[in-house]
């Protein structure tokens, strides 16, 4: 019994270490460094920030343009636009 639980713990430990290593690689991959040679001036840094923000806003504006309008409400009883079956004034028996 002790050998079995030791084997399970060993396997779980390996899985956790692998997951931890994967997360660590992912964190390191997304890290970017700005310095190039002598570094940036304040104006160059502000320009990069401004360009980055403009790109983000452009994506938001494009997604707002792609939003589709909803269709007008249509009654399922009389098939007229502007109301629903719950508020329909037509008599149900007249359609039989």
Automatic annotation (TrEMBL):
Domain CCHC-type: 73-90
Biased composition range(s): Basic and acidic residues: 47-59
PROSITE patterns for the chain: ZF_CCHC (PS50158)
Residue stretches spanning the membrane: none
Domain of life: Eukaryota
MF GO annotations: nucleic acid binding; zinc ion binding
Gene3D superfamilies for the chain: Zinc finger, CCHC-type
Record protein name field: CCHC-type domain-containing protein
Lineage, opening ranks: Eukaryota, Fungi, Dikarya, Ascomycota, Pezizomycotina
